[in-house]
Every structure is written in C-alpha cells, then in structure tokens.
Design brief:
By secondary structure, the protein is an alpha/beta fold. It has helices at residues 30-39, 58-66, 79-84, and strands at 5-9, 24-25, 28-29, 46-52, 70-74. It has a 3-stranded parallel β-sheet. A two-stranded antiparallel sheet has the order 2-3. The protein starts with a strand and ends with a helix.
C-alpha cells in the first residue's frame, strides 16, 4: 500500500517578505494555517516541511516541531534536491 506525503516548502530568507511563513494569521502563523488545512485532506498520510540548512531557519524548525509535523533540512540553493532527498 502506498503512502501520500505532502511536502510544504518554507524558509525565512525570502527576498520580498522575509519571515513571511511565521507572520501571524488569526491565532496561528501562516505556516500553522497551511499545515492545519493540509491536515484536513483525507488522502494525506504525512506532512513534511522542507527548509534549508541556513542557521536563520533554526527558529522555523522550532515552530515546525511545535506544530507536530515532520521536518527536512537541505541545501538552500537547490530546491528540487530538498524535495528529492
């Protein structure tokens, strides 16, 4: 039986709006809202948030752990590799 994993890309180093995934949205953050919506999908078995190895994303990793989903850290420049590893 196959499993369906949702991968959410998130990092704090955005050029246009740095830190946007941790901005407040209602009683949570933008990332928290997105995760709560993905959790509602009945076909998703696991949620993984993929972020970078950059130290500035350490605070993001703390938030991901609080939100109770899996975490993967990879190369900041190679987004596709973060999905494939």
């Amino acid at each position: 039986m196959s499993r369906c994993v949702a991968i959410i890309q998130a990092r704090l180093g955005s050029a246009r709006l740095p830190g946007k995934v941790l901005l407040p949205l209602g009683n949570t953050t933008i990332l928290g809202f997105m995760i709560s919506r993905v959790k509602e999908a009945k076909s998703i078995d696991e949620i993984v948030v993929a972020t970078t190895l950059n130290p500035r994303d350490d605070i993001l990793c703390d938030e991901i752990q609080k939100l109770g989903v899996s975490l993967f850290r990879g190369d900041e420049e190679d987004v596709l590799k973060r999905f494939n590893d």
